[in-house]
Amino acid sequence: MAATRTTLAMHFVVVVAVMAEGPSGTTVLGTAPSPGARTLGMLFSPQLPMMARGFLWLMLTNLCALAVPRLVNIGIDIVEGRGATAPLSLSAVVALIVTLAVVGGVVRTQSRLVLFNAGRDVERALREDLFAHLATLSSTYFGRSSTGDLMSRLTNDLTNIRLLAGFALLNALNGILVVVVTLPLLFLLDVKVAAVSLLPFPLVIIAAQLVSKRMFRRTRENQDAIGALSTVVQESLAGQMVVRAFSQEDLVVARFVEKNDRVFHTSMRLARIRLLMGPLMGLMASFATAAALFSGGYAVAAGRMTIGDIVEINTRLVQLAWPMIALGFTLSVWQRGKASLSRINEVLVARPDVVDGAQRRSANSLQGPIKVSGLVVNVGAPPRRGVDDLSISVPAGSFVGVVGKIGSGKSLLLKAIARQLPVERGQIRIDDVDVIDWHLSALRQAPGGVAVVPEDGFLFSATLRENLVFGAAAATDADVEAVVDLVDLRRDVERFPQGLQTIVGERGVTLSGGQRQRVALGRALLARPAILLLDDCLSAVDVETEQNIIRALQSGFGVDAGGHMAAATIIMVSHRLSALKVADLIISLDQGRGVERGTHEELLASGGLYATLWGEQQRREELAKRLRGDAA
Ligand SMILES: Nc1ncnc2c1ncn2[C@@H]1O[C@H](COP(=O)(O)OP(=O)(O)O)[C@@H](O)[C@H]1O
Ligand SMILES: [Mg+2]
Q: Is the per-residue pLDDT at 163 higher than 80?
């Protein structure tokens, strides 16, 4: 009996150890290694009632299956002529075997259904958490990570977790049940025979442990390769216009082939080690059968056992071998699930670098004064100053222009004001409250909040109207029509087949750059912001249209169906200096520093960087006008 306990204990220890301890350092029931990360225990605990139900069905299944070898044993005894001592008749034995097969089949289906459903629930809950978490992360995070890789985490990796929580759990539980029932029965039949035939099994367990460590590493390698592949696919599809324009199809295909090869090689490496498991386990099962026949033969000769006993032992060894063979596969699914969980945890532990403050908005609308003092914004790794010690005072309702060369920090300034980037040093005050203290939704919420219009307005594949009202669900048709006029989209809309109901292609590919920009501006205006941050968002629109739009913006948006809306505070970045002539104040940035400031006239008079740029642009516009004149 001592041998029983040792072997049993060993199997338990191994199964539990394999489940609990992985190279990722998470444990089944341990606490999460860092805030946000999930452990298997956290994923499973809401499913415990369902899993318990599945486990009950599984126990019934095994009762049915594990009774059969004993019935066969009794049947053989009867056939051999020892029917007198048998508790049942031969026909009763046969009827029982058939009944158990039918009942066992039904119950097995039930147990799979319940446990697999638990796996699906785990997957759904984790996917929801993951997506909700992504929504809290700031633009810095999305700047660092690739869409394709995130997509692969939201799909492939979650599938692996479903398999872990369903398939692998079922097999592990099943294995434990079979072992717990079979081992005592074997030893009750004959201790010596049982001990000899079980000799190969510890070797299996040790081999499984060795292989599983390596399997985790290779699995992780393979999953990262899949992530990299989906990045390439996603980028080349999204950027297919650029690819064609520069006829770089070959380059894209080459990059794809490289990543695809990597997926192939890593999955081959993984498959090699996974394939090793099956034969290894099968070999052990055959050794066990041979050992049973050998030692059982002697026991029969010595009169300690019947032929029926040997058949029962052999059947039980085969039943025991199956979970062992499946153990290899189960381990691989388990490790794959754990590797996937570690990839998902990488996302879950990411913290937004811009977080909510406590300040809610009391009045209906922000008033709009902005005060920037000594602002430093860092970018990149290692961090360097993108905005450097910048101070600006923007009174409510004023129009401030920002100019500067490419990379001078204009966009960073707007993003910091809109709280898309963290403030490294200094302060930004909106309505005399530090932006750090503002609750993000209070700051951004429509109407009367802060709106940013980036240079390349992103559009959803939806109708034009849906794109326009994205941030303003309450907008009326009159509001939408007013904005269409304001951003000079009227003629374009009339030319579209279904007007405002026209569906723009993915990211708005069916629109021109200028149309896209004006839709994006319209979307911001419909949210009726008190502070409007324009990041070169009319660069693809012609000069006259841009000036018309700016004039309209300065005199209020006029989109409020009820009352007229006061003019917002506007900060506008533009490469086209003529657009900013009417600004109350113009700041000129150089390497993140404010180098010049004043009105258009003041800056021209001072003869600095602004004056030089102005001269260049004037000459270019003159030239363009003359060329148009010649052509006419
Ligand atoms: N996410 C980022 N990571 C690293 N560097 C960045 C990032 N965003 C901007 N930068 C760098 O910061 C500087 C200012 O950028 P930006 O404000 O976008 O310039 P611009 O004046 O053209 O709008 C540039 O040198 C740019 O390369
Ligand atoms: Mg920019």
A: yes
Q: What is the dihedral of CA 95, 101, 107, 109, to 10 degrees?
A: -150
Of 146, 123, 144, the closest CA to residue 38 belongs to: 123
Distance (Å) from CA 409 to ligand 1 centroid: 6
Domain residue spans in the chain? 2-348, 370-606
C-alpha 209/C-alpha 215 separation (Å) is: 10
278 ligand 1 Cβ < 6 A: no
Round to whole Å and give the CA distance between 252 and 263.
17
Q: Is 200 in the pocket of ligand 1 (CB under 6 A)?
A: no
Tell me how far apart the alpha carbons of residues 508 and 515 are, in angstroms, rounded to a whole number.
Answer: 9
- Which residue owns the Cα nearest ligand 1 atom 26? 407
Instruction: Tell me the Cα Rg of the chain.
Output: 36
CA angle 194, 196, 198 (to 5 degrees): 65
Look up residue 529 and give its two tokens. Answer: 């912001």
Check if 412 has its Cβ closer than 6 Å to any atom of ligand 1: yes
DSSP reduced 3-state for 597: strand
Per the structure block, which two tokens stand in for 480? 């939408």
Q: Which helix (H) or strand (E) holds 318?
A: helix 307-348
Q: What is the predicted pLDDT for the residue at 20?
A: 43
Residues in the 5 Å CB sphere of ion ligand 2: 411
What DSSP string runs through 44-94? Answer: HGGGHHHHHHHHHHHHHHHHHHHHHHHHHHHHHHIIIIIGGG-SS-HHHHH
Domain 370-606 CATH (choose: 3.20.20.70, 3.40.50.1100, 3.40.50.1460, 3.40.50.300) = 3.40.50.300
Residue 124, token pair as written in the block = 């759904």
Mean pLDDT (the chain, rounded)? 86
pTM over 0.85: no
- Is the distance from the beta carbon of residue 381 to the nearest atom of ligand 1 less than 6 Å? no
Question: What is the C-alpha to C-alpha distance for residues 436 and 220, in angstroms, rounded to an integer?
Answer: 39
Place of tokens 């001078």: 408
For a pLDDT cut of 90, what percent of the chain falls above it? 47
Place of tokens 């001072």: 606
Q: Which atom of ligand 1 is nearest to the CA of 387?
A: 14
Give the dihedral of Cα atoms 451, 454, 455, 458; nearest 10 deg. Answer: -110
Give the separation between CA 580 and CA 313, rounded to whole angstroms. 91
Which ligand approaches the C-alpha of residue 535 most closely?
Answer: 2
The answer, yes or no, to whether any atom of ligand 1 lies below 6 A from the CB of 454, is no
Helix/strand/coil for 146:
coil
The reply to whether ligand 1 has any atom less than 6 angstroms from the CB of 337 is: no
In this structure, what are the phi and psi dihedrals at residue 400, rounded to the nearest 5 degrees?
A: -110, 130
Measured CA angle at 290 (ends 288, 293), to 5 deg: 110
Ligand nearest 415 Cα, by number?
Answer: 1
- The CATH number assigned to the domain with range 2-348 reads 1.20.1560.10
Tell me which ligand sits closest to the C-alpha of residue 421: 1
Task: Classify residue 498 by its DSSP letter.
Answer: T
Q: Which helix (H) or strand (E) holds 180?
A: helix 169-189
Helix (H, G, I), strand (E, B) or coil at 444: helix
Give 378-420 pLDDT, tens digit per residue: 998 889 999 999 999 999 989 999 999 899 999 999 999 999 9
Rounded to whole angstroms, how far apart are CA atoms 610 and 130?
47
Per the DSSP assignment, residues forming a β-bridge with 402 are 573, 587
Q: Is 328 exposed, middle or buried (0-12, 13-18, 19+ CB in 10 A)?
A: buried
Where helices occur in 498-540 by DSSP H, the ranges are 513-526
Q: Which atom of ligand 1 is nearest to the CA of 536?
A: 23
